[in-house]
Amino acid sequence: MLEDRDYLRRPASAPGPSWVVLLILLNLGVLVLRQLFSTPAFPPAGAISVAALQKGEWWTLFTHGFVHADWWHLLSNLALLGVVGGRILADVGGRHFLYLYLVGGWVAAAASLLLHPLSPMIGASGSVMALIGAYAALHPDRSVTAGLGAWVPRLGAAHAFLGLLASSVALELFSLATAAHWSIPFVHHQAHAAHALGLITGWLYARHLRPAPAPLYWREDFFPQGLRRRHADGVAANRRSAPFSPNLCPAPARAPAPALSNDDFLRQSVDPVLEKLYASGMASLTEDERRILQEAAQRFGTHKN
């Protein structure tokens, strides 16, 4: 039924976090080496600035993202990288993950140098914010507070993205307006514009990668637990199929397996597609595999008024 079964015959490979672990180790190693072998200086070696680029120090385009002021600066960035990095790596693959990380850092640095040409920039916050923006684009309805306890209100990734973006813009405007009068470390020593542009860059990049049948992928409780639970509870027959816009998700020309029972359809058709989805991301699915997911949504989806 599935035309491309090669991925099932290949030996299982380790999931995505290898690139995340490598980036964490690189950032940790740079700070340790700076503290062991270099004397405190401002700006620190590897920082990007207008003056450094004018002198031809092009390598700072790559090094500034691995230089951090102190352990608190480093660990706050690495914590966010560890939370969202593995998920984004599994979603988009290693190549696009690195593009997101690098391009997000470069756009963030450009924004910071444009607004503050006399101030050098260091840190991976622009790259990390790009990953957060990509997460919001790929999982807009996924709750980012689900693991904090039942008493914490649920906050979707899209709303968290908008909150972060609005606060970054507000802090940058406040910093520009008050820089001549005050010096508040959290406000005036942070690259808020870099954070905002990093978020927007990651969101736009991931929106470009997101496949056409987005309503399927937006369902927080669809793959695979929600699908199996709704079937196991015996309520799928009493619920209407989830609607699909004919413009976004055209109806398939033929059903993948109209004669199969629900159990056989899950085992023979849906399970292999879910394996490939989690191994290689949504972009790797063929047209036939996407038709199978559409058929699964029509069989087991839930419509909410």
Task: Please outline what is shown here.
By secondary structure, the chain is mainly α. The chain has 13 helices and no strands.
On the 0 to 100 scale, the average pLDDT is 76
Number of DSSP E strands: 0
Q: How far is it from the N-terminal to the C-terminal residue, by CA?
A: 35 Å
Q: Whole-number radius of gyration? A: 23 Å
Key features?
305 residues; mainly alpha; Rhomboid-like fold; 13 helices; elongated
Descriptive account of the structure:
The chain has two domains: 15-209, Up-down Bundle (Rhomboid-like fold), CATH 1.20.1540; 214-300, no CATH class. It has 305 residues and is mainly α. It has 13 helices and no strands. It is elongated, with a radius of gyration of 23 Å. α5 (71-115) packs across α6, α6 (125-138) runs antiparallel to α7 and α6 packs parallel to α9 (192-209).
Write the topology of this structure.
Elements: H1 6-9, H2 18-37, H3 50-54, H4 60-63, H5 71-115, H6 125-138, H7 157-178, H8 185-188, H9 192-209, H10 214-218, H11 225-232, H12 262-280, H13 287-300
